[in-house]
Amino acid sequence: MCSRAQERLCNDNEVMKVAVLDKNGKDTGRKVDLSQDVFGIEPNNHAVYLDVKQYLANQRQGTHKAKEKSEITGSTRKLKKQKGTGTARAGSIKSGVFRGGGRFFGPRPRDYSFKLNKNVKRLARRSALSMKANNQAIVVLEDFSLDIPKTKDFTSVLKSLGLENKKSLFVLGDSNNNVYLSSRNLKGTEVVTSSELSTYKIMNANSLVLFEGSLEGIEENLSK
Question: How far apart are CA 189 and CA 25, in angstroms?
């Protein structure tokens, strides 16, 4: 049992018990069990670092490009005789030492992505979830839906949970288009399904809000 009503996470030998809240922020009187294998492991900081690094690397387009000497449009005439001028030799106006010339060793298009073992990625997500659990930054929310996409309705949910001024990540069990569209215009709030959950998104949020229906999918995916 929790020592205070405000403490939503309770540690047992095998499971962690979390109080389930409704969309108004009220305790439903029910608790769900979070697997220690997913939410209670010793976090591996290096695995988290690698997974976040890969996520950010994959976001880079890598389309940067600067023209080099051979790609500049200009005369190929030799500017001056090779010797006897008292200055450095110069063979082309397109050289990078002149204004308007090509760039020396400029950036070229490249792919920044790199491979990461799936077991490392799974360990990183478990570590990130365990960090949030240790910091009591996990909220389990009773499944709900909205009749129509309306930002005002979703904002009221944030206020009820005390998350209106915090970065929050809502994790749905199944795709819920009305909830997603209602949150899309809110800065600092993101809604994803359990299959879209990543280490970067977990670590980037101050509070992790798990819909009750998402727990089974999360634990199934990460317990393998």
Answer: 17
